[in-house]
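Example record for the data management plan.
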Amino acid sequence: MRSREVDALLGEAASGNRSVLTEYESKKIFAAAGIPVTKEILTDSIEDAIAAGNKIGYPVVLKISSPEVSHKSDFGGVYLGISDEEALRVACEDLKKRAEDASIEFSFLLQEMVDAGQELLVGAKRDATFGPAILFGLGGIFTEILDDVAIRISPIEREEARRMVREIKGAPVLDGYRGMPPVDLEAVVDVILRVSELMETYEEISELDINPLFGYEKSVLAVDGLVLL
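Corresponding structural encoding:
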């Protein structure tokens, strides 16, 4: 079923001739699809960013939000573990200077600082011949280092999604490894199915990436993500 909010976000990007949605826009789409995402507030001024930080509660994460910056960490636009209002103001001023030096339009994205979980990846890419391909694997730095992903052509049934989760070489990590808690595999399966449904419903989406998806013992949480048209 199509969502008015998702239609509006995709339409706004298309009308602006943008093929890459911001993290904020992408996670709005994920949330509309029923995928758990971090609490966050988008602001355009330092004072509003301070107010947002106080509303979310410290510690917080500050990120740059700009259609011109896909890789925020490479740009130096991610500030983790900001502990109070003074530290947030300093981070905002530094981010503003970086953006102005690069001559790009930007906003401040304030996000809750969450406990680290097992980093996972759920993604999708639309193939001209076969349609949407859905991917699952370990996320973060492991994505590129291990090249260990399971792939299926959408649409996917629950049992098939369960097999995807179990067939990667890193699957033992999901059961708990060296004191790490196990991951809620059914919650991971839910995300895979919802990504598949998104790709089936919205042909405008050419690519989708949730990385990392934090896996916890009783839940999952999309910490970062990207949608491409």
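Summary line stored alongside the record: The chain is about 40% helix and 25% strand.
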